[in-house]
């Protein structure tokens, strides 16, 4: 008798599983198509990279991905196994190439691991015997990947262990008390006349900084279209003095932030250069004024439309004894050459502007001005001028190519066209009667054949100018015949430097290329070793290149030369593209000269090292604090014909509106054979930079020896990401940063500067961030620290910066510790 086993109908669960599998049957083929396409891109690009002498990885990995994808399209489980092999190969290659360098792992591993999880999850649709195991292993793989990231998180914030900091000394061995501000004040742009950006206040410490709270906010009401509020205000007596991006002057109550007056010089919007900015103002007390006399104390600023403005510090009213109705016109004597017909014409609005802070020495207001980069070889002169701080009368002019011209040129002629300018802020020495000028380049930064011998002498150099004669006393050049836009951007700092023969009054000079020089203030002689090092030759003007360049052995912020595996991205594809472009460009280390019709890599770029934010010095501990940028530029010279075809026309030319010449650093360079294309920071179309993080850092340096005490990435990734989308990742990736710091006797560094819109307090001993606050806009400005009514305040301008792509604002914000109950 036979029997039949009746299994009955399929259970609902099995039916649903089978139905789901049928519904998802197309997903392995889709995923396989994606993997195969990626493989084709990697294999094809990798072959080109190999032909340039680059890595073999992309060819091998691309071939494995093509095989894996095709097998998956055919419904073969071998495709998943092949892809697993490709990921394993990628992991081995990654750790061999970069080790445990956290940020460098991202473009190499994250994308492949995401696809790996997807491949494991679709595996049951290719082989039903895998079943639940695949889902289990997919979840295990996802969890393992998350765990691996958690393990690697400390690596992302790795920094050198701090060395022992020198102990504070009561007699401040690196400072001269005559150059320091009054206790609790901030009476000059750099804190005091020495520009050390140091406060001797110690109420706020690493232990209590966590308790800092906002105590007042002042809104300037000024957010221009091309915003870039870089203000470092002054605190004198009971008042705060500052300026807005469009040069509106204001006075606030230091305790409450209440506005006491505001004066608008009515700068036309047409005079805004690349960025509307006013970094600060100068304060001057007339020693001959009677008590209570109008303008006995005055605030002086330079404006975007080339005026010096003086107002009464008490009332904000223009000083009628200064120039004409409180203003001296600096456009007088300036002209440019028309690019079309060669005629000498007035300066085009927006191509010359004062954004730096005037410096006053011996009652003389010394100022330079910026000349818009990349426009004309025969642009406005970079003449340096000194004006009487009371009358506004021109006391001297220093015209590099016309040294016989000591005031206005005769017969209505202009100052020499296109000479090196000083766009940043100088520092003055009242005892020596000198003002130290950090000079820029001649107009047309990337072409040198038309420069005079005098221009070549003073370009990218520190010049000690005698304010009584208006003549240079000495010059120290940091770049010979500069063709990289390595103008000096930082305000120098005055220190008392220890030598074998005792303390020497010195000037500390940071540079964009990352070197720091310490020079005797009286003679300009280096107080440390400087070597003339052989540098790459050739380029578009081979006979112009200096065979050597000066390299400081005191200290440098330079990082090692770039290599292929330093290239970055958000995926293996854009990292490969960056590798290809790296190999295609000319790069032979520092000072690789620009090429015609071929990119050259300039590392660091013109926003590298220290820029206008300058450095801070703790004279009691003998420590320099330097925040810095670590990014290249990707540049290319183009012929005049090609420049015209690309729309590279100078400002003021009717064809220039909206042209590529509007980008900072890029431009027509009319009057020279070449235009210039500049990719600042070397960004991909995604907005991601082509080189690995960190892109910025902050470092503590022993002032006596130049040795690094600690160094850490500076700037979190919370507001950065591809296509400008914030990632909200709180890790310190090290972002681009512009704006300086202040150090205090309490052992803290206060700084914003980075693109994460945070103000931070850092323990000077360890480099540890002990407090931060989210600002309503970018903080591309240097903070100040002062005391009022027994309370210590920290004030920062949160105005944002369009070049740094941080949000704009108009908030001057003060922080303090809560009152004790």
TrEMBL record:
InterPro entries given in the database record: PQQ_b-propeller_rpt (IPR018391), PQQ_mDH (IPR017511), PQQ_rpt_dom (IPR002372), Quinoprotein_ADH-like_sf (IPR011047)
SUPFAM superfamilies given in the database record: Quinoprotein alcohol dehydrogenase-like
Cofactor(s) required, per the database record: pyrroloquinoline quinone
Pfam families assigned to the protein according to its UniProt record, in alphabetical order: PQQ (PF01011)
Pyrrolo-quinoline quinone repeat domain location: 186-794
Enzyme Commission number(s) from the entry: 1.1.-.-
Coiled-coil intervals: none
Single GO MF annotation: oxidoreductase activity
Entry annotated with the keyword Acyltransferase: no
Keywords: Membrane, Oxidoreductase, Transmembrane, Transmembrane helix
NCBIfam families on file: PQQ_membr_DH
Protein name as annotated: Membrane-bound PQQ-dependent dehydrogenase, glucose/quinate/shikimate family
């Amino acid at each position: 008798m036979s029997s039949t086993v009746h299994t009955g109908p399929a259970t609902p669960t099995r039916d649903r599983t089978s139905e789901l599998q049928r519904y998802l049957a197309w997903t392995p083929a889709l995923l396989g198509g994606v993997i195969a396409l990626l493989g084709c891109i990697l294999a094809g690009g990798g072959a080109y990279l190999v032909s340039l002498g680059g890595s073999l990885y992309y060819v091998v990995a691309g071939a494995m991905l093509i095989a894996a994808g095709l097998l998956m399209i055919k419904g073969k489980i071998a495709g998943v196994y092949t892809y697993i092999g490709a990921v394993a190969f990628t992991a081995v290659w990654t750790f061999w190439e970069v080790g445990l360098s956290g940020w460098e792992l991202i473009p190499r591993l994250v994308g492949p691991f995401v696809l790996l999880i997807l491949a494991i999850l679709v595996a049951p649709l290719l082989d039903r015997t895998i079943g639940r195991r695949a889902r289990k292993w997919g979840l295990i793989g996802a969890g393992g990947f998350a765990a691996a990231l958690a393990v690697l998180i400390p690596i992302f914030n790795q920094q050198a262990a701090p060395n022992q900091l020198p102990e504070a000394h009561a007699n401040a061995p690196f400072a001269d008390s005559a150059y320091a501000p009054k206790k609790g004040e901030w009476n000059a742009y750099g804190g005091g006349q020495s520009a050390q950006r140091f406060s001797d206040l110690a109420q706020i410490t690493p232990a209590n900084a966590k308790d800092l709270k906002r105590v007042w906010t002042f809104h300037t009401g000024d957010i221009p279209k091309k915003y870039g509020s870089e203000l470092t205000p002054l605190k004198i007596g009971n008042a705060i003095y500052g300026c807005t991006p469009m040069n509106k002057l204001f006075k606030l109550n230091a305790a409450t932030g209440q506005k006491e007056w505001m004066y608008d010089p009515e700068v036309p919007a047409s005079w805004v250069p690349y960025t509307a900015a006013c970094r600060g103002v100068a304060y001057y007390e007339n020693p001959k004024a009677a008590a209570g006399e109008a303008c006995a104390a005055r605030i002086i600023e330079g404006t975007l439309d080339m005026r010096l403005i003086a107002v009464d510090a008490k009332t904000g009213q223009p000083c009628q004894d200064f120039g004409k109705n409180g203003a001296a016109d600096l456009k007088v004597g300036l002209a440019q050459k028309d690019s079309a017909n060669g005629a000498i014409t007035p300066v085009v609005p927006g191509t010359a502007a004062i954004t730096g802070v005037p410096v006053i020495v011996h009652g003389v207001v010394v100022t330079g001005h910026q000349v818009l980069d990349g426009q004309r070889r025969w642009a406005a002169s970079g003449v340096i001028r000194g004006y009487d701080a009371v009358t506004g009368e021109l006391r001297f002019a220093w015209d590099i190519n016309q040294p016989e011209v000591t005031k206005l040129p005769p017969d209505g002629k202009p100052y020499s066209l296109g000479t090196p300018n000083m766009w940043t802020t100088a520092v003055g020495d009242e005892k020596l009667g000198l003002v130290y000028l950090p000079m820029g380049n001649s107009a047309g930064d990337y072409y040198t054949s038309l420069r005079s011998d005098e221009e070549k002498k003073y370009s990218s150099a520190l010049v000690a100018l005698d304010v009584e004669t208006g003549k240079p006393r000495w010059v120290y050049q940091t770049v010979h015949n500069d063709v990289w836009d390595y103008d000096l951007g930082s305000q120098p700092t005055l220190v008392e430097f220890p030598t074998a023969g005792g303390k020497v009054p010195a000037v500390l000079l940071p540079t964009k290329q990352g070197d720091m020089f310490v020079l005797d203030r009286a003679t300009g002689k280096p107080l440390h070793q400087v070597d003339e090092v052989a540098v790459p030759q050739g380029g578009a003007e081979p006979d112009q290149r200096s065979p050597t360049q000066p390299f400081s052995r005191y200290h440098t912020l330079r990082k090692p030369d770039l290599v292929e595996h330093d290239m970055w991205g958000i995926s293996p594809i854009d990292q490969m593209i960056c590798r290809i472009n790296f190999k295609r460009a000319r790069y032979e280390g520092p000072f690789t000269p620009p090429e015609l019709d071929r990119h050259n890599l300039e590392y660091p770029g013109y926003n590298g090292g220290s820029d206008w934010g300058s450095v801070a010095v703790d004279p009691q501990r003998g420590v320099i604090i330097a925040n810095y940028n670590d990014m290249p530029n990707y540049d290319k010279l183009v012929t005049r014909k090609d420049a015209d075809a690309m729309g590279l026309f100078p400002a003021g030319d009717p064809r220039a509106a909206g042209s590529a010449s509007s980008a900072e650093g890029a431009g027509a360079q009319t009057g020279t054979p070449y235009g210039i294309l500049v990719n600042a920071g070397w960004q991909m179309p995604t907005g991601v930079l082509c080189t690995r993080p960190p892109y910025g850092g902050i470092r503590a340096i022993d002032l006596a020896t130049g040795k690094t005490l600690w160094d850490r990435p500076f700037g979190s990734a919370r507001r950065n990401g591809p296509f400008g989308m914030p990632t909200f990742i709180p890790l310190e990736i090290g972002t681009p940063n512009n704006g300086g710091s202040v150090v205090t006797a309490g052992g803290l560094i206060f700084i914003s500067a980075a693109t994460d819109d945070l103000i931070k307090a850092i323990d000077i001993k360890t480099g540890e961030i002990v407090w931060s606050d989210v600002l309503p806009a970018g903080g591309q400005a240097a903070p100040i620290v002062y005391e009022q009514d027994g309370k210590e305040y920290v004030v920062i301008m949160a105005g944002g910066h369009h070049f740094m792509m941080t949000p704009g604002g108009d908030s001057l914000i003060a922080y303090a510790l809560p009152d004790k109950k």
